[in-house]
């Protein structure tokens, strides 16, 4: 399972941080940051491989900007 975030289009609402603080935090730029993620240079997305999506399923559905996605 992979969690992906289009960081550039994040609006910084903080819903992901409130729902899943184990994986999300607010960055100095006022946008959410996926902890431990690496940038995919081809897409510019932040990506993190997980064996279990845990609370990130809820994060995907709660993001008003729809910039967080889970892929198998």
Protein topology:
Blueprint: E1 2-5, H1 15-19, E2 24-26, E3 32-34, E4 38-39, E5 46-49, H2 56-62, E6 68-71
Antiparallel strand pairs: 1-5, 1-6, 2-3, 4-5
How would you explain this protein's 3D organization?
With 72 residues, this protein is α+β, with helices and mostly antiparallel strands. It has one domain (2-71): 2-Layer Sandwich (Alpha-Beta Plaits), CATH 3.30.70. Helices cover 17% and strands 28% of the residues. The protein has a four-stranded antiparallel beta sheet with strand order 4-5-1-6, with helices on one face. The protein has a two-stranded antiparallel ribbon with strand order 2-3.
Specify the helix fraction band. 10-25%
Give the total of domains. 1
Poorly predicted regions are none
* Tally of separate helices: 2
User: What is the alpha-carbon Rg in Å?
Assistant: 11 Å
Arithmetic mean pLDDT: 96
Tell me what the CATH architecture is. Answer: 2-Layer Sandwich
What share of the residues does DSSP label as strand, in percent? 25-35%
Find the CATH topology: Alpha-Beta Plaits
Q: Could you give the distance between the termini? A: 5 Å
What topology, given as strand order, has the largest sheet? 4-5-1-6
By CATH reckoning, the class would read: Alpha Beta
What general form does the structure show? globular
Structural class: alpha+beta
What's the helix-strand series?
A: EHEEEEHE
Q: In total, how many beta strands?
A: 6
